Amino acid sequence: MFVLSEIEVLQDVGLCICVHDVLEASEGRVRWGDGCLYYTVLFRLVVFRPFTNEVLVGRISSSSSDSIRISMGFFDDIFILPHLLPSPCAFDYQEQAWFWLLDPASDAHVADPLLSAPEERMYLDVGEIIRFAIESDDFHDLEPGPAVGEGKLGEMPNHVGNIPGSSGSKGSTTSSAYRVIATIAGQGLGLVSWWAGAEQVPIE
After folding, report:
1. Across 103-148, where does the E strand assignment appear?
2. In CATH, what is the architecture of 2-48?
3. CA 47 and chain centroid, separation
4. What Cα–Cα distance (Å) separates residue 86 from each residue in 21, 32, 103?
5. CA–CA separation, 2 vs 19, rounded Å?
6. Quick check: 123 and 97 in contact, CB under 8 A?
7. Does domain 55-143+164-195 have CATH number 2.40.50.140?
8. How confident is the model over 50-84, as pLDDT tens digits?
9. Domain ranges of the chain
């Protein structure tokens, strides 16, 4: 395999990790003016693009009230949005972390998890290993657009009407060429430590 000097995103293809093999290569041709040899090459790439509902494991790299960000080492743009967390849950601004109530003590805690006691909360702390399922992915063309002031007459400025997590908003999850949206609202998903002591149920 040939490791790429810089990992790149191919639009609607995925994150290119490395060259798997070279299938064909033409004879070198010298381009007029620089004396360098140029080749036409047909090759196969190793590409990262997980499919919907695929289960992966990563590490929580950061949290905000808008999302939880996950890193897999070679790829850092995996996000869990609030509606894709197990319920009931809430963001603790003091701890700067999301938490889940596995067994709420009362209906009031279900309605407002922040009323719960700290010992009831199962926090998703930065650095924890997390198991998640792929919900969706999307690509964004990062080519520069028109300069400021070149918009159409009557067009709304980019910063007006943005919602958290949308393109152009503060803390946007769309500032990269490729991002993945994940969920942990399912059996066996979430922090790996949550399920470490769970018994395996035999399938008949």
Report:
1. 121-124, 129-139
2. 2-Layer Sandwich (3.30)
3. 16
4. 42, 62, 12
5. 5
6. yes
7. yes
8. 999 999 999 999 999 999 999 999 999 999 999 99
9. 2-48, 55-143+164-195
Q: Which helix (H) or strand (E) holds 19?
A: strand 14-25
Long-range contacts of 68-76 (CB under 8 A, 24+ apart): 68/98, 68/124, 69/173, 70/130, 70/132, 70/182, 74/7, 74/15, 74/17, 74/48, 75/15, 75/48, 75/180
Q: Which residues contact 62 (CB under 8 A, 6 or more apart)?
A: 68, 69, 126
Going by the DSSP 8-state scheme, the letter that residue 71 receives in this structure is: E
Q: Which residue has the tokens 């066996």?
A: 188
CA distances in angstroms from 149 to 26, 109, 141, 170, listed in the order given: 47, 49, 21, 21
Query: What is the predicted pLDDT for the residue at 92?
Result: 96
